[in-house]
Amino acid sequence: MNFIKSKINGIVTIEPQVFQDDRGFFMETYSKKVFAENGIDVDFVQDNHSHSSQGVLRGLHFQKPPFSQAKLIRVTQGEVVDVAVDIRPNSPTFGQWESAHLSAANKKMFFIPAGFAHGFYVISETVDFQYKCSNYYNKESEGGLLWNDPDLNITWFTNGNPILSEKDKLWPTLSQAKQDLMKISW
After folding, report:
1. 51 a catalytic residue
2. pLDDT in tens, 129-186
3. Where are the alpha helices (H) located in the chain, listed in sequence order?
4. Contacts of 55 by beta carbon, 8 Å cutoff, 6+ apart
5. pTM higher than 0.70 for the full model?
6. What is the CA radius of gyration of the chain?
7. How far, in Å, CA of 88 to CA of 94, rounded?
8. Nearest CA to 120 among 48, 174, 68, 184?
9. Dihedral sign of CA atoms 8, 9, 10, 16 in order
10. Set 51, 118, 131, 136: catalytic member
11. What whole-number distance in Å separates Cα of residue 97 and Cα of residue 152?
């Protein structure tokens, strides 16, 4: 596996080694030992699978401590633009974002540590989006940021009118949420 570190501390794009022939392919998607040797020493406790249609944007979501979550993300069918926003108040990259193009074809994975808001936009007709979490979901600890916050200026590659949940339409901007985020210790 090739672990590519981002300019934002903690975010890593992982390119697995793929063994392919006329029968198909094989790849290792996770090895606790290999990940730890590459600086990702996380205990994953939950796997999630999301199926979405083209034009759907999910996010930007996060879990507040003590239920904050690191995530290991991959796409098994289709393609997305995946985005992580640094919301760690003491981080030198607070408010900056990183994105990855994830697809079944490129087989890349995206590691996002706790302390980030996360979202994705579906480019393909449909997508199967799978991810490991380092903590269990807790509704009372749920938080989010507005997907189109002008201060974040995220490049989603949307047509400008993505399909959103009602909840995702109502999240605050980073500047509106900043005071509450400053109270959190990630």
Report:
1. no
2. 999 999 999 999 999 999 999 999 999 988 779 999 999 999 999 999 999 998 888 7
3. 32-37, 174-181
4. 122, 158, 159, 161, 162, 163
5. yes
6. 16
7. 6
8. 48
9. positive
10. 131
11. 8
Whether 61 is catalytic is yes
Cis-peptide, bond into residue 60, ω within 30° of zero: yes
**Phi, psi of 177, deg, nearest 5:** -90, -10
Q: Residue 168 is which amino acid?
A: D
What is the CB neighbour count within 10 angstroms for residue 166?
6
- Spot the catalytic one: 49, 51, 61, 137: 61
Indicate if the alpha-carbon torsion angle 166, 56, 150, 142 is positive or negative: positive
Instruction: Read off the tokens for 35.
Output: 């990940």
Q: Which domains does the chain have, with CATH numbers?
A: 2-181 (2.60.120.10)
DSSP 74-127: EEEESEEEEEEEE--TT-TTTT-EEEEEEETTT--EEEE-SSEEEEEEE-SSEE
Which residues neighbour 112 within 8 Å (Cβ) at sequence distance 6 or greater? 10, 11, 70, 71, 73, 84, 118
